[in-house]
Design goal:
The complex is a heterotrimer of chains A (300), B (229) and C (550). With 229 residues, chain B is an alpha+beta fold. Helix content of chain B is 37%, strand content 11%. Chain B folds into three domains: 74 residues, Roll (Ubiquitin-like (UB roll)), CATH 3.10.20.740; 91 residues, Orthogonal Bundle (Fumarate Reductase Iron-sulfur Protein, Chain B, domain 2); 31 residues, no CATH class. In chain B, strand 3 and strand 4 form a beta hairpin. In chain B, helix 4 runs antiparallel to helix 5 and helix 5 packs across helix 7. The longest helix of chain C is centred in the N-terminal third of the chain and has 21 residues. The chains are: A alpha/beta (300), B alpha+beta (229), C alpha/beta (550). Chains in contact: A-B, B-C. Chains B and C meet through helix 1, helix 7, helix 8, helix 9 and helix 10 of B and helix 5, helix 6, helix 7, helix 13 and helix 16 of C.
Amino acid sequence: MTKLAYYPGCTLKTTAKNFDDSTVASAKALGIELVEPERWNCCGTVHALAKDDVMHHLAPVRNMLRVQEMNSEGQVDSKEMITLCAMCYNTLKRSNQTFNEDSDKKQKIQDIMFKEEATYSGSVEVKHFLETLKEMGWDKVKEAVKTPLTGLKVAPYYGCLLLRPRGIGIDDTDNPRIIEDLFEALGAEVVNFAYKQKCCGSYNTVHMKEVVGDLAHKILKQAKDGGADILATACPLCEYNLGPRQEQVKVQYPSFDSIPVVYFTQLMSLAFGLGDEAMAFEANRPDPRPLLREKGLLEE
Amino acid sequence: MENNSEKITIYVMGKKHMVPEDLTIMKAMEYSGHQFTRGAGCRGGYCGACATLYRKKGSYKLEGALACQKIVEDGMYIAQIPFSPAEKKTYILDEIKPEAATILEYYPEVSRCLACNTCTKACPQDIMVMDYVQASLRGDITQAAKLSFDCISCGLCAVRCPAEIVPYNVSQLARRLYAKYIDGPSEHVLERVKEVEEGVYDQDIKELMTASKETLAERYNTREIDLNE
Amino acid sequence: MSDYISGYPESMQESLRKVAESRANRVGKQFTPMTADERHKVLEEYHPDWKMDQKRELKVGPCKGELMPHEVVDILEAHSVIKPEDIDLSNIDYDVDVLIIGAGGAGLSAAILANDNGVDPDNILIVQKLRLGDANSKMSQGGIQAADHPKDSPTLHYLDIIGGGHYYNKPELVEAMVKDGPDIIKWHEELGVLYDKLEDGTMQLAPGGGTSRRRMHSCKDYTGVEITRVLMDETINRQINYVEFTSAVEFIMDDKGQVAGAVLYDMDTHEYKIARAKSTILATGGFGRLHIQGYETTNHYGSTGDGIVMAYRAGANLMHLDSTQFHPTGSAYPEQIVGQLCTEKLRARGSQPLNIEGELFVYPLETRDVEASALIRECYGREKGITTPSGMKGVWLDTPLIDIIKGEGTIEREFAAMYRNYSKFGIDIRKEPMLVFPTLHYQNGGVEINVKCETNVPGLYVVGEVCGGVHGKNRLMGNSQLDLYVFGRRAGVVVAERAKTAEIGKLNLDHLDRYEKWLKEGDVETDRKSPILLPEYRGKKTLDHQLKLL
């Protein structure tokens, strides 16, 4: 069992608990133990996305320091820090890059990291779990499959933060393959569609849900027109805007037919045969289970 | 008794005083003629009444301490912060649930935490304040309750927080939720309460209440002592 | 000990070496408990209560002739701080069903139960000399007793209390304590108090001095802090009225002879205010800050015995005030924290008292009066104490044994406050012992009450440390935390019932004139005034508070 430091982020502990559960279970099935740091804080997304200020890097850098401590105490097997939430991944990775590239800023950040016994050296490598899977090899993933997702037409949805900006993104910004490759390994039929990198509307969901309703409608309709049964995503905010927000889409577009949206790790758990607790489909809206039963992938 | 200690200079709210070097801030202020109404409580580090901000000679940093626990230093500037007009939300514990969103519902400002750790630095109890605020943010009530347990509500964290969070009130809610709903009651306590209500011990106790002093002393001196775990 | 820098001065190092060397041999060993005769002898020869030159007979009022410490007689044989003619009773500032004086554990419990039983939060007024919750209640470290373990019983608890109190306790009050005990713990858990538990969810229970069973429930060594802050939070949630920095200075009576409220003193603006109430609950705590016999104290800043003065002027009966509790283990070093409490639980978890030679000399869990007397005898009778640079004496309390017996990390976990406190002065109690000596801890006696917390004066209810009769002439560890809630809750229920029918007559302060007459009849000539409200430590007095012994 390889041990990797795992940074879940706040959302995976609250509204995206199913993302957390399915990931930990899937990783385990692949021989990876994801180890959470004993102490961690918010990735700092809200602050780090604003125009640069040293203060904004404290939260992300503090988390990387936690992983560095895990490294020096031999709790994990590599310098990697595995993340899931696209927002966390993006924030941590960018902050780490700034820290390593701007020596002036690095010094300032270190100076105001109050009450820390160790100093962050910049040594941690921020990774998305999809990257870990790719490095491990799709063959390895294929070996772990017990129930191939045969006949399931999956539309991979990336959103913004997994691919942008260049240098931070986990794959080619214009022609990503990573989620596609995963689902091919899982035995699903991949549906390619034009809006897989389009923005889901992000935080506009709080105060301008019509904007999100429009965007979600465009994305979901495209996927459906391409023949998709289901969308797979890697971001809790995208999941929310494309999933539960379908209620809003229906208000704006009464003829719209719903389509399930799940985390990629949930379908991994399904393919690996890890059981209800790992798949945690009960938290998704719309409920993907009727579809999966219909496809013979899930027992009645 | 005479105190032969060296005298040093301190500044209380800007005013200069010479005091023995081995006194706590509290005793040094009394030595220099202050009688506390506010700013003194248990005098033993348990009540948080004597929250104090100080600055050491030659330093620009404001640091926090309890006046009853901190020894004065030469050139120290001292100001007491005996009261913090911090907001405390009211709730009926029986009607709320220990869910991830509960704390944020009452204290939404928790989500403004910058993770700057200023609160932890200000805490005279060495509590990892930022860590429990962050635990509250992600709905980890258990962690928030445990990390904050040694809090004495002195208020220094709230005074220093740039995000205007009141950590000590947030943690009070977390601890009550944890104790009532997650930790839960002890069965043997409930059992015993029931027995007492049913009068199981009435007869025995009545007997002791009406016994002569001699009989009681005899019973007391020969009682079986069992302190094994 | 190799790399460790000792926090103690050179003069103590030889003795510390002996302690360290003998430690391994002392693990699991215990000094034999005293016989009843030996206990009596050590009390008579060494307990401060038995020093008759430190007491005198009270010369005024219904308890005339009773022996009390000079410091207590001094505040009773004193004039009121107010003159009746200066107070305008027609101008009522607060008019309520229930007035509660003091906001520690007892006062807060009374407020919550009065509210539970139908008194509107607006019809309750809590006045508090300092802040809400500023009280000795908060300072309890070791725990609270309640007989809820299957191996224990309320009957055994009864026997421990009354034997420990030397049979002076009022039986009905002891009965209330032991029968209500388990329900108090249940109530606390419902309110969200976090007690220490074992892995199977049962209470983690410790023994205490004079207990026949493990009966002490704790919240690390912040037991009082945890319970009090929960009660404060609950009081605020219910929006019960409270006024801080406002002290009661005298009761107000009516023409039916009832207590009908109090004259209040605003500590900030120095104004007097009038509170009229159908029932008044006195919950002002004890008298530790009077420094009986010059002893340092574990007590809160506000513990100045105000309640007994006000109640006595109103005609209430006092009992057992000749008896004072000295806690066996107060800090004797470093200077800055002399007198502060070192919880009895330190001994309950395995640390031993040792003399200068590193020898055991007493069973660690005798009742508090006996244990304290044995420590005084070791220092001043047998001359085997350790002398500090300021000339004070003490004995070692060998705390490192706790981690040896209970496993590494126990001290940091269970004695977080104590460990932190000593660390600030450079002493690591995991590695070195504490130097301790008895310290003034508790007012055993007080205003006489019955199980309904009633006094001999209608309208006046008394709860907590200011009342007498519960603990006899010696209190056991963890029983004051219990009595706060037992009698606080009972008073709350009683005054809620009384609010339905009680009627207040015309207000007066005639009892103050009567008190002046008693002073004259007793030939007391003095310019002392009381209650004193705050202790005086300004200037040289800061340095004066050191022990004047034997």
